[in-house]
Amino acid sequence: xxxxxxxxxxxxxxxxxxxxxxxxxxxxxxxxxxxxxxxxxxxxxxxxxxxxxxxxxxxxxxxxxxxxxxxxxxxxxxxxxxxxxxxxxxxxxxxxxxxxxxxxxxxxxxxxxxxxxxxxxxxxxxxxxxxxxxxxxxxxxxxxxxxxxxxxxxxxxxxxxxxxxxxxxxxxxxxxxxxxxxxxxxxxxxxxxxxxxxxxxxxxxxxxxxxxxxxxxxxxxxxxxxxxxxxxxxxxxxxxxxxxxxxxxxxxxxxxxxxxxxxxxxxxxxxxxxxxxxxxxxxxxxxxxxxxxxxxxxxxxxxxxxxxxxxxxxxxxxxxxxxxxxxxxxxxxxxxxxx
Length: 339
Description:
By secondary structure, this protein is mainly alpha-helical. The chain has one domain (3-240): Helix Hairpins. It has 7 helices and 2 strands; from the N terminus they run ααααααββα. It has helices spanning 3-95, 99-103, 107-127, 133-153, 170-272, 280-291, 316-338; strands spanning 296-298, 301-303. A two-stranded antiparallel sheet has the order 1-2. β1 and β2 form a beta hairpin. α1 (3-95) packs antiparallel against α5 and α3 packs antiparallel against α4. The protein starts with a helix and ends with a helix. The relative contact order is 0.10. Mean pLDDT is 75; it is low at 98-102 and 300-339.
């Protein structure tokens, strides 16, 4: 096998290999595109589910806030009920002249008693015209004392728990407080029932929320898996593309070498076939030779002043012409002799 045939065989093998690798490269790109499209579908589904999850979560939070507000109202009524019941206990103890209970008065009860005493003293000053100046001053001092104590107790007792009682009618105050305590208890129970009903509507939302969260997580995992597979195929594509480019570069280099060889060959042929009128250097050299009186030869023929001269000084053209005439004359004479 010649060198040219070996080169053609090598080129054919490279082209076959390149064709096979390009076909595989297209398949890999199609597979990568499929993984990317699957990842996009999973991402779109995930985003849709997550949006639904966020809306549902916001709805649940609103309902939870509403439920919490209702529970807080129930707690407020419960606290007021407990405070009233504590006052009832203390009033009952006061009615029985229990010393221990007197020493352990709650701020709520003490504040109520002080407020009741202040109201009574102020009413006496406004309605009793027989009060002397000295007694009026004493009453004012007592009101001031109670007011100072009231300011000390107020930060300890919430506004909603401040209950006014009549110290002159403890039994009646106890009955009124019981009624008020029962009312607060019923209000508390009502708010708890309302909160319980609202909670029954919230529980199914929790189940739906958990389902959407799990579904969103599943779709996100599917998205990550598709992206991972696409990245793995992309790595194969990059590696194969590098091999394809190497083969392409090799074929290109061989084509350039073949073209360069053909160009060099054609150039050498053109130079060999050049005539004096096309080759300035050759024309100049011939002109110099002719001017110097030298003989030149082109293609095996002689040109110049000595081209038609024989070595004996006679013209070869004339000699040839004489030989030709003699040959014709002899042919004629020989023919007459035979006759």
